[in-house]
Amino acid sequence: MSENISKSHLIVKLLSLKLPSEDYAIFGSAPLAANGLIDFSQIADLDLVARGSAWEVAKKLSKEPPKKTDLKFGDYLGFFRNGEDFDISIYTGWPHGIWNINELIETADIIDGIRFVNLENVLKWKKARNKPKDASQIALLEEYFKNRKF
User: Most CB atoms closer than 10 Å: which of 24, 28, 38, 104?
Assistant: First the structure.
């Protein structure tokens, strides 16, 4: 496991859940860190999309039943409460657009054995969400793709 990923306390917590790796992928900003575009110290929490066995394991591990998301795009479970929030949130859907969870997981980049939603989908989501806090990461991703050699 790369030093960047292995030093993340959030990744350590995630791996402690022992979710089947083929049935989830990390979304949000963490894929930028996994790809070396930002540091994991900039990541406040992990957001996962999950299906099948990973979702079933998460439900068994949770002390609470799944809850509906505020935007009604699916169910979620939270782990490792950190004040009002959770360090890890696991979702059965994803907001701001029509997302196929199976496709997000199947096309995810596998970095050190962990699936991270690919950067193309992260950029699409951040643009669709269009929050001011995402502007710098959108610019970073656009620059990354502009300079990337195919």
Answer: 24
Q: Is 134 contained in some domain?
A: no
Residue 131 main-chain phi, psi, to 5 deg: -90, 145
Contact 1, 113 (CB under 8 A): yes
What pLDDT, on the 0 to 100 scale, is given for residue 71?
A: 81
Question: How far is CA 149 from each of CA 124, 144, 145, rounded to the nearest angstrom?
Answer: 20, 10, 8
DSSP 81-149: EETTEEEEEEESS-SSS---HHHHHHT-EEETTEEE--HHHHHHHHHHH--GGGHHHHHHHHHHHHH--
Whole-model pTM?
0.92
What is residue 17's DSSP assignment?
T
